[in-house]
Amino acid sequence: MTGHQASAQGAAKRYEVRSNFFAPPAQFDGCFTSFYQAIIDVDDGGVLHDHLQPEWANLRFFSGSVPVSQVPGKPELRDARFTATGPSTLPVRFELGTCRMWGIGILPLGWSRLLDTNASDVVNIICDGAAHPAFKKFAPMQEVLCDDSVPDQQQFDYIVEFMNAAMRPNRDEDKIVRVHRAMVDSKLTSVADFADLSGMSVRTLERLCHRYFGFSPKLLMRRQRFMRSLTDFLLHDGKKWTEVMDDHYHDQAQFTREFHEFMTMNPSDYAALDHPVLSAFIRARAKIWGSPAQTLDKPG
């Protein structure tokens, strides 16, 4: 197991967030963002509040405190040691105390090999993974990954073994990789160009995107543009939104509208919030993994 660790502390050590990133083995190339751990220590039984940004599907397994989580406009999720999210274009608000979490980020290629459900059927949800039809196949992982007495190496080996057994080839794999590679190109400006770079018709692109990526090509392009801007802001303290806006935004008004659509709040309101978990995680990920967010990862 090759892991890379980073940590961040709050004022007066009220809390500490440590992140460990583990490279999936070569047979999983392009299937996962990473296998990762977050270890959160909060003084005096307190909790941290933060918002997950739009991302790919994730499986998360908790020992210690479990989160209270909510997608805007949907019921809160409580008391779940295994939480699952589909691809998202909305934030997930959460509060969380002292805990250890294993996370598995699933890229579109991994989705094609692991899940039979259309990605578009489970977008913008957070659920008890053990109870949801799309994700309950991963519920047995709780026994190992939610047990603090199991050593990290053994847990990592278990993830690899479980995913190896669950994988099966998909006839669309080459197309998925081409779409993913085109999608992360920062020069992309139109659906027609997206289709050309992917080497397929717009209609085929639409079908593949809904099946394995969760959203339409146009929305995926907008999410990429937004995430480039948001991560730049979180990586650079003191920068103004006008300094981190992606070049493809026409003006600040367009950026503000899209920020509200993706995060359900205005940029100024978001900037005024503390981001104790996400800021630490994004900085560690950028430094160690070379990419600050899952949505910006390349397909292999």
Automatic annotation (TrEMBL):
InterPro entries named in the record: HTH_AraC (IPR018060)
GO molecular function, one term: DNA-binding transcription factor activity
Domain HTH araC/xylS-type: 174-273
Pfam families assigned to the protein according to its UniProt record, in alphabetical order: HTH_18
Protein name: Transcriptional regulator, AraC family
Organism, as annotated: Altererythrobacter epoxidivorans
